[in-house]
Design a protein that fits this description.
YdjO, Cold-shock protein, 30% strand, single chain, 69 residues, mainly beta, 3 strands
């Protein structure tokens, strides 16, 4: 029988990722730019305008984006 132990896992590599950050002071909304649905998205939590930001996060690939040549 084998047991799963989280302590033996190596931490996932992190990198600086460009994001959209909510401009509303009391809102914590944000999204990765490569996961945003438009070039100028609205906050998914409050609907406010979003601005450029950067966060240190685990790198994820967005496979739903279509590549055009």
């Amino acid at each position: 029988m084998s047991y799963y132990n989280k302590r033996n896992q190596e931490p996932l590599p992190q990198e600086e990722v460009t994001t959209w950050e909510c401009t509303k002071e009391d809102c914590n909304g944000w999204t990765r730019k490569n996961f945003a649905s438009s070039d100028t998205p609205e906050c998914p939590l409050c609907g406010s305008k979003m601005i450029d930001g950067v966060r240190t996060l685990v790198n994820l690939q967005n496979n739903s984006q279509t590549k055009t040549s």
